[in-house]
Design goal:
The strands form eight sheets. Strands 3, 4, 5, 6, 7, 8, 9 and 10 form an eight-stranded mixed sheet that branches. A four-stranded mixed sheet has the order 22-21-23-24, with no helix packed on it. It contains 44 helices and 27 strands.
Length: about 1450
């Protein structure tokens, strides 16, 4: 509301620009009336995500973040896992790690980010078990070495610091609304907190975009081979207005939830108890066989059981019985998870919702169990016991637990069993029963575990478990018979020839019943089946080439048999098939585990069948048995081998014999390979001569953009999809030998360095730094890839060039590491060469043989590291997100075109204006005094617009309601029954609007994308204009639809109907030879007129639908035609510095004049000069709000206080109240007193003075001086004076935050001078109270740490009063570090409080945008080495690109 554009040149005919205030890709007007949750949802619905590859397109090889809680939520809720019903922790962990493993396998580098605020989110979703799993997964990640970090919430300072420190490539997170149930007592959408929780994940998306971090949508993740595809949202969709609103709301929500945290356990105590429990468990009977994964689960189960049994002693029946039953089933659950293998865990049981007693009674008890789990896991996440393996991935299996409950009630809840479940029903082995009794004893059980008494529960309603039919057991898998045309052909030929194929007996093994595996029995594993790889490979799917090969050999078999060469080839083929099959088996075996997730699946060592698991105990095939028999005979009589009469050893088939290659043939093959290699080198060398001129042209480039484009086109090619240098695609496609390709890459790097040196990039201004930084990144990637790809072929000169390149960019450490790596490679190559030489000398035939044409690796030379030369000049790095713009200010005429009356363009072409679509009636009636009345389309449109303001302040404003009723009643027919506003009920129309809104929100993703794409295409047609053959962005070219006028402040016309704009009221401004655009969307209409005025900035004008005044549509603020007047405006204010002395002398003399006009003129000038008041002008208060300036001040606005103080109190521009008490000179005080004499309060104070009279007076000192210039001058001069107070020589003593504070203080003084105010936020007081409470907490912690430090220094053990549960360090050094951290934290927090309090009613942005010369800020930032983006947001940097190249010596004088 404080944007101020009154410094534009209105005198040249440019009226106020039409349009809405744009925020990102949305209109602020679209969302400003909505709640924060609705704003986020509306913003999310308007996003245009695009499908991308996470690794190649989003740079997933570099570090990116994954939101852990949304990963858990999407996998548990949106995946194929029914976690709500089964609650199988292990299965969920496997699904999550499977996805992470596939991302990592695609070369992704990620970090899991956990947020503690999600505990409240899961609680609001009524899924507290998800938080328990989250804590288990966090502990699993920490113990497994997964990269992860825990932060409070995404609006915290820790998150902001983490994002700025690591700058992730993107954030992978959920994009779906959270499933938070509505409160039945609240209206739909009425609970604000519930709606905020629903939009929680979407608010994280908005927050990440604030840090220029793209968002990748997790729910749409698709794996296509090694590619990971999803939909992404770019940072350009960030909307600061919505983000700021969300930040205020969610901070209050998250911090309020933090205050309600339950009392946590002491981590050290829990670790100690867990260590003692683990030692006791391991030292007990059978403890050596207990897996580490069971220790933590048993500890939590026993801890919960103790508390529950103690509570059951004081509880009444049947509650006490239910508690004991809950504990006993948990202990049975623990025992089964220890003994059951994974393939027996997927038990068949009833559906969760089929047994309501279980869902109502048992689940409430499990909630307490999960709460215990969460508390213990939270402690273990912060501190881990030594010597205890922590693995919480298999903490609970709800499916097994539910099955146990059903089994116990099904077998024990009857009169025959006397409502008891006995031990015989389970038939546990002796060792299992001992383990169960030990757990029951540790849990505090005083009686025997069995029998389980169900008498007290038998009378409870719905206690009977549901019946379910078990499915038939699946049969054991069996290998089918081998069917192969090739083998059948061999058998047929062998039968015809009388040959016995003994090796085919392998296929009969599967039919031998003695080799069939035994089934699993309780207590251990049986002998596993023998896997015949040859048989399995027969069933592998063959490719087309393999099928052709088989057909070829079949044909040879029918035509006379196969030769020795064919047999060798067939042997290789079979070995390859076997290898592929083994890889498949290994892959399948790996799939049973997931990295650090699972232990190997092995039998229980306590089983009597443990020995049968050993491979030597496996059953053997007939061929293996025969081979073992021969080995035994040979061992018994070694001399029998080779004796007469001894059985001759079996001759292996010829097909298994590999063909031999003679030495001569080997020599010939090597010679041919060397000649072929040399021929390719010669061919690539000739290509290199063709490429060299193209590479040398890079050194002659004198523009950064051209150099970047030519480099990418040369190295990556014109058809590149991404800017990846891996493998140098364009070069690798042409050059087949790496030795020649490496020469070309080195030449390219050398040429780029030469071009950058000739352009003196280290002396370029800040506006060029983004382009330089991008180019440096490209060159760095080239150097890195050259080292990775060609390190074996680089000589001393090559590595020296790469080092010099890195040093030019100040990468000293990288250059050292690169040289060391290259040196190791060369040493290794030299040693390999010596070994080859020794081998050649031993072979007499090869003596003197020279390998002509082979690649000669360069010998190891003592290459001097370029590091010793010292670093070259480093490139400057500032303004990372600044984009290059059209440098119109570098032209000779510069900003002369911005002067009034000067020619603005030679050619202008655009597509006209975009009109609002026609209103579509909905036919919903209005209810008047209980009767439904259908309205005409005109009245219906007005009534529908009225429903749009319901719930806002306008609904209760009398002036708005009266004007609306006036408009609405005029639209009604004369004989209407509607006579008064009080009898009208608009609820049906409002309900229809809400229903339509919900329909828009519930559209499918494809529908939203199609509609958004269509709307963007329509807007894009009008968005730009061709100005002097250069594309420039236009302002708001879309005409507003008819609506109720709202206005600012107490505007007299608010509530009136703003009519539709038609082409007949529009005038287009075009070049004489430009085509006239068609009127689109309004058939039968035409433009009022076409003009060719090249001395104005506007491209179209139209009549306002309310006042009838002429308004103008012009160019965007970032265009060059808008920047030129800005530069002239600030230069005009700068020239006023030299003339202001004369002006002050003049009006001081005129204050003593006898003429009333002169005295009023001089006094008004004094107010404009000293108080920076706007000049003001006459206004029709019936048409506009009653706002005044200097010349329109009335007597009622002035109060005199002797001796010489004047009090001002009036409404300024945009109805902002101006209150100020100023001590003036005696002459001014006397003059004002005389001006007020004999006047009414409503009379003008300066009744003889007008703005035009003052401007004529100012032209006596400067030809182009007007009253507006004084306001710009005062703002810029004040800023310069305030910044001059900074001692630049001490800039190194200030942090960036301190420099920003100094600048903001100066900016605040300017804003106060210019009365740039804003209303205090409603939540400001509450926010300040929270900040004060946080400050008191920090101060208390600091006091405790200081007392603790004193105790450590003195050796005192005196307890500290205010320590509470605060964890205190054990040594003095850590305590001192904590004290230093708390001091810094307190200082930052106090600074944030001061800034928030000081800026609660002051707007700093208006001064930056419209009044303060941006060159002052740019020069000062360069002086003190402050990043310009810290004080100038992107919108201001793009509006004033011409100011960025000014030097640090600039002064406003």
């Amino acid at each position: 509301d404080d944007d101020d554009d009154d410094d534009e040149e209105e005198d040249e005919g440019d009226g106020p620009l039409l349009g809405k205030t744009k925020i990102g890709h949305l209109s602020q007007k679209e969302v400003e009336e909505k709640s924060v949750s609705d704003q986020i949802a509306y913003w999310h619905d308007t996003l245009l995500p695009i499908e991308v590859d996470l690794i190649t397109e989003l740079d997933g090889q570099n570090l990116f973040f994954i939101h852990a809680e949304s990963l858990i939520y999407d996998t548990a809720i949106g995946g194929t896992i029914d976690f709500d019903s089964d609650m199988q922790f292990l299965r969920l962990t496997f699904a999550i790690e499977q996805a992470l493993s596939r991302i990592k396998g695609a070369s992704g580098t990620f970090r899991l980010v956990f947020f503690d605020c999600c505990k409240s989110l899961f609680s609001a979703m009524q899924r507290d078990v998800l938080w328990t799993y989250r804590q288990a997964f966090l502990l699993h990640c920490k113990t497994s070495g997964v990269d992860c970090v825990v932060l409070p919430h995404w609006y915290s300072q820790e998150f902001e610091d983490h994002m700025k420190q690591w700058r992730p490539a993107f954030m992978l997170q959920s994009n779906r609304p959270a499933e938070v149930p509505e409160d039945e007592e609240e209206e739909v959408g009425g609970d604000e907190e519930t709606q905020l929780w629903k939009a929680c994940f979407q608010s994280l998306s908005m927050r990440c975009l604030r840090f220029e971090t793209p968002i990748a949508q997790q729910r749409d993740l698709i794996f296509r081979g090694n590619r990971v595809m999803t939909f992404s949202v770019d940072p350009e969709f960030h909307v600061p207005f919505i983000d700021n609103n969300a930040c205020a709301k969610y901070k209050l929500l998250f911090e309020a939830e933090d205050e309600e945290e339950e009392e946590a356990l002491d981590a050290s105590t829990v670790c100690k108890e867990l260590k003692e429990f683990a030692d006791k468990l391991k030292s007990g009977p059978g403890g050596e066989y207990i897996d580490d994964i069971a220790i933590l689960r048993s500890f939590i189960t026993v801890r919960f059981a103790k508390a529950t049994l103690a509570q059951a002693e004081t509880a009444d029946e049947p509650g006490a019985s239910l508690m004991r039953l809950l504990v006993k089933v948990l202990l049975l659950h623990e025992l089964l998870l220890r003994l059951l293998p994974l393939n027996k865990r997927g038990v068949y049981t009833y559906a969760f919702e089929d047994w309501m007693w279980y869902a109502d009674s048992v689940m409430s008890g499990l909630d307490n169990y999960f709460s215990t789990c969460s508390q213990v896991l939270t402690c273990l996440c912060s501190e881990t016991p030594e010597g205890v393996a922590l693995e919480p991935s298999d903490l609970f299996d709800g499916r097994t637990y539910r099955y146990l409950f059903h089994f116990i009630f099904d077998k024990g809840l009857s009169k025959k069993t006397q409502f008891e479940f006995t031990q015989e029903k389970f038939d546990l082995e002796e060792f299992a029963q001992k383990d169960l009794d030990a757990l029951w004893e540790m849990a505090g059980g005083k009686d025997d575990f069995f029998p389980i008494d169900l008498k007290a529960l038998s009378s409870m309603p719905d206690i009977k478990p549901p019946n379910f039919e078990r499915g038939a057991a699946r049969k054991e898998p069996q290998l089918v018979s081998v069917q192969s045309d090739f083998i059948q052909g061999l058998e047929q030929q062998a039968a015809e020839s009388g040959i016995e194929l003994k090796h085919m007996q392998l296929l009969e093994v599967e039919e031998d019943p003695s080799d069939e595996p035994e089934v699993f029995t309780t207590g251990g594993w049986r002998v596993p089946p023998y896997l015949d790889s040859l048989a399995l490979q027969e069933h592998m799917e063959m490719s087309g080439a393999e099928q052709k090969m088989i057909a070829k050999f079949q044909a040879k078999t029918w035509n006379g048999g196969i030769n020795e060469r064919d047999a060798a080839y067939l042997h290789k083929f079979r070995m390859k098939q076997k290898q592929l099959m083994l890889r498949k088996l290994q892959s399948y075996a790996d799939s049973l585990g997931a990295g650090n997730l699972f232990n190997p699946i092995i039998p229980d060592r306590k089983s009597e069948h443990w020995d049968d698991w050993k491979p030597e105990k496996w059953p053997k095939t007939g061929q293996q048995q025969e081979s073992d028999k021969e080995d035994e005979e040979e061992a018994a009589d070694p001399k029998a081998k080779g004796k007469k009469g001894a059985p001759a050893p079996k001759k292996k088939p010829e097909a298994n014999k590999a063909p031999k290659v003679s030495a001569k043939m080997k020599e010939l093959q090597e010679k041919n390979a060397a000649e072929k290699e040399q021929a390719q080198i010669d061919k690539d060398t000739n290509k290199l001569k063709i490429w060299e001129p193209k590479i040398e042209e890079l050194a002659t480039c004198n523009k950064l953009a051209k150099l970047e484009k030519d480099l990418l086109d040369t190295v990556l090619g014109l058809q590149r999809v991404t800017e990846s240098f891996v493998g140098f695609p364009a070069i690798g496609a042409v050059f087949e030998t790496p030795v020649v390709a490496s020469k070309l890459v080195l030449k390219a790097i050398k040429s780029v360095l030469k071009a950058m040196k000739s352009m003196s990039v280290d002396q370029m201004g800040p506006e060029h730094q983004p382009a330089i930084r991008k180019l440096v990144c490209y060159v760095f990637c080239m150097v890195q890839e050259a080292m990775n790809s060609y390190k074996k072929f680089l000589d001393g000169k090559g590595i020296k060039l790469l080092q010099e390149t890195l040093l030019a960019f100040n990468f000293k450490r990288t250059s050292q590491v690169m040289f060391a790596t290259w040196k190791e490679v060369q040493v290794s190559l030299q040693e390999d060469g010596k070994k080859d030489d020794k081998k050649d000398k031993k072979d007499k035939k090869d003596k003197g043989l020279k390998r002509k044409g082979s690649i000669q690796r360069p010998p190891l030379k003592k290459a001097k590291s370029a590091v010793e030369k010292g670093p070259s000049k480093a490139l400057l790095r500032t303004e990372e997100d600044y984009e290059p713009v059209n440098r119109w200010w570098d032209r000779e005429d510069g900003a002369l075109a911005g002067k009034k009356g000067e020619k603005k363009w030679d050619s202008l072409e655009h597509h006209g204006l975009m009109f609002a679509p026609d209103y579509e009636p909905h036919g919903v009636p209005l209810v008047y005094k209980g009767k439904k009345i259908k309205l005409d389309p005109e009245a219906e449109e007005i009534a529908t617009n009225w429903c749009g303001v319901k719930g806002s302040d306008y609904e209760t404003k009398d002036i708005f309601v009266n004007n609306f009723w006036k408009v609405f009643s005029n639209a009604l027919p004369e004989n209407t029954e509607i006579k008064d506003f009080e009898g009208c009920d608009f609820s049906l129309i409002a309900g229809h609007r809400e229903k339509e809104r919900q329909m828009r929100l519930n559209r499918s993703k494809e529908e939203k994308e199609a509609i958004s794409k269509e709307n963007n295409a329509k807007k894009a047609w009008y968005a730009n204009a061709l100005l002097n053959n250069i594309q420039e962005k236009l302002g708001a070219v879309a005409m507003e639809p008819p609506q109720l006028f709202r206005g600012r402040g107490e505007h007299p016309k608010q509530g009136l109907w703003k009519k539709r704009t038609f082409p007949e009221s529009c005038v287009l401004n075009l070049a004489a030879d430009a085509p006239v655009p068609k009127v689109l969307g309004m058939p039968g209409h035409a433009w009022r007129d076409i003009v060719h005025e090249n001395t104005v900035q506007w491209i179209a004008s139209f009549d306002d639908g309310l006042t009838g005044e002429t308004k103008y549509v012009g160019f965007a603020a970032t265009s060059g035609i808008k920047g030129q007047p800005d530069l002239l405006k600030y230069e005009r204010a700068r020239r006023l510095v030299k003339a202001v002395g004369k002006i002050r002398d003049s009006y001081e003399k005129l204050q003593q004049s006898k003429e009333l006009v002169d005295r009023q003129k001089a006094t008004a000038t004094y107010f404009i000069d000293i108080l920076a008041l706007r000049v003001g002008g006459e206004k029709d208060t019936e048409e506009e709000a009653d706002t005044v300036g200097c010349c329109s001040l009335r007597v009622e606005h002035i109060t005199l206080e002797p001796p010489k103080t004047i009090h001002f109190d009036f409404l300024g521009k945009d109805s902002i109240r101006y209150q100020n008490a100023v001590e003036v000179t005696d002459l001014v005080y006397q003059n004002v007193m005389s001006f007020m004499q004999n006047k009414k309060p409503s009379d003008d104070l300066f009744d003889k003075v007008s703005p035009s009279l003052l401007n004529e007076y100012f032209k006596e000192f400067m030809d182009d001086l007007t009253a507006k210039v004084f306001r710009t001058y005062n703002a810029s001069f004040t800023l310069q004076q305030e910044l001059n107070k900074f001692d630049v020589s001490k800039k190194n003593h200030y942090t960036q935050d301190q420099l920003v504070k100094f600048y903001n203080d100066a900016n605040r003084r300017v804003a106060i001078l210019c009365n740039h105010q804003k209303a205090e936020s409603k939540s400001h007081a509450a926010a300040m109270e929270k900040m004060k409470a946080a400050r008191e907490t920090i101060e208390k912690n600091l006091r405790v740490m200081r007392k603790h430090s004193s105790n450590l220094e003195s050796g005192s053990q005196k307890p500290i009063k205010d320590a509470g549960d605060m964890k205190l360090p054990k040594d003095l050094n850590t305590t001192r570090k904590k004290i230093a951290e708390l001091k810094i934290r307190l200082e930052k927090h106090q600074h944030a409080m001061d800034v928030k309090e000081e800026n609660k009613t002051v707007s700093l942005g208006t001064s930056k945008t419209n009044y303060m010369d941006p060159r002052i800020t740019v020069a000062w930032c360069k002086q003190v080495d402050l990043a310009i983006e810290r004080v100038f947001p992107r919108t201001i940097r793009t509006k004033f690109p011409w100011a960025m190249h000014f030097k640090s010596t600039f002064r406003f004088d």
